[in-house]
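Structure (tokenized):
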């Protein structure tokens, strides 16, 4: 959380830049693992993507313990045995949008963001495809991509190899709004 606030502070330090910073009004990240014995899915509504429309920089920090599963035992195994949430509390994507987007013009834009995805303490360079929708003062972001769990050294015990797919489908849907700095009267 400290990194996000430092990132925001650095970006909004100049008063003329405040309107170019967008933060999630809402965000939903889901993942789905299709396997022969059992499908596994989870949803996380706690992530807060941050976007700087001046530079195209984007950051999404995801609390691993905020993923909710259909079965409590799946959630326990996910946090304790696979992603080791106590040790690796967050996943993080820090990158930059590659295309030039007209942030002042309503429309839908196909885009890619290239950056570093850190899951389970293992950072990998990724280019992620998605769609950016500009509508009034809000920006929508949607993306669907796969993560190969071995790339992030997430170990699956041989007993459960038929329960969990090697590739997990991730979907992100977020609506961002201009960041408004709150002033304290203290």
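Design, position by position:
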């Amino acid at each position: 959380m400290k990194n996000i606030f430092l990132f925001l502070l650095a970006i909004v330090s100049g008063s003329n830049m405040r309107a170019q910073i967008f933060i999630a009004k809402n965000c939903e990240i889901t993942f789905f693992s299709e396997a022969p014995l059992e499908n596994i899915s989870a949803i996380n509504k706690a992530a807060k993507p941050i976007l700087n429309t001046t530079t195209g920089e984007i950051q999404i920090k995801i609390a691993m313990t905020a993923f909710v599963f259909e079965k409590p035992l799946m959630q326990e195994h996910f946090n304790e045995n696979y992603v080791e949430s106590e040790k690796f509390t967050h996943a993080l994507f820090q990158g930059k949008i590659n295309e030039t987007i007209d942030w002042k013009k309503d429309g839908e834009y196909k885009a890619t963001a290239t950056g570093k995805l850190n899951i389970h303490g293992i950072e990998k360079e990724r280019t992620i495809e998605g769609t950016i929708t500009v509508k009034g003062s809000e920006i929508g972001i949607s993306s669907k991509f796969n993560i190969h769990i071995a790339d992030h050294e997430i170990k699956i015990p041989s007993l459960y190899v038929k329960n969990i797919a090697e590739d997990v489908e991730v979907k992100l849907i977020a609506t961002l709004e201009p960041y408004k700095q709150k002033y304290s009267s203290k």
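Reviewer-requested clarification: Strands lie at 21-33, 40-44, 50-52, 57-63, 68-69, 90-97, 107-119, 122-135, 138-148, 167-178. Helices lie at 2-11, 72-82.
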